[in-house]
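Design job #97: recover the sequence.
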């Protein structure tokens, strides 16, 4: 039995460090780099995420820039699916669809290639962390604009006290670690 198989969710939680007052005063940032550098913990995290969706016939995993790429690409590999990046404005080379969404401190724009997904494709959307839900809601709208079916939305970490899951009411949401 490998060490990754014996790790519990509480072990994964222990590998995430808190950084006080980042990116601004009063915020406690959940730093996942300490989990990522632990090969067994990273493997366990990916296996837990993949296990939840292995029977869903996922065609594409959509990863959200930037940390969503880390888990998204690994999940796509594990699920035998393609990987589609959602990036900030101006980062994708071909024709894109974009969406503007609100942040706590302004607006931002996300883009997906116009030909990334098609009708009747099943998509798993992945990011590292669910906070207020604004970013992931925008990504869901981009995916729906391409007439793809969202089979689920997955996160390594969910900050439940920010109630971001409420913006994803009609979707299956799975988070490995909850605070």
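Job complete. Output follows.
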């Amino acid at each position: 039995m490998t060490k990754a198989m014996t790790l519990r969710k509480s072990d994964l939680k222990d590998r995430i460090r808190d950084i006080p007052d980042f990116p601004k005063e009063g915020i406690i940032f959940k730093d996942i780099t300490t989990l990522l550098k632990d090969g067994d913990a990273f493997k366990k995290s990916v296996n837990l995420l993949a296990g939840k969706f292995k029977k869903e016939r996922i065609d594409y995993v959509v990863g959200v820039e930037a940390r969503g790429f880390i888990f998204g690409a690994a999940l796509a590999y594990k699920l035998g699916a393609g990987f589609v990046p959602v990036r900030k404005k101006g980062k994708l080379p071909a024709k894109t669809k974009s969406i503007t969404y609100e942040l706590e401190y302004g607006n931002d724009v996300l883009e997906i290639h116009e030909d990334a997904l098609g009708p009747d494709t099943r998509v798993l959307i992945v990011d590292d962390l669910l906070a207020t839900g604004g970013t992931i809601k925008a990504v869901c709208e981009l995916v729906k604009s391409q007439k793809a079916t969202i089979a689920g939305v997955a996160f390594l970490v969910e900050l439940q006290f920010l109630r971001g899951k409420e913006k994803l009411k009609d979707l299956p949401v799975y988070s490995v670690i909850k605070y």
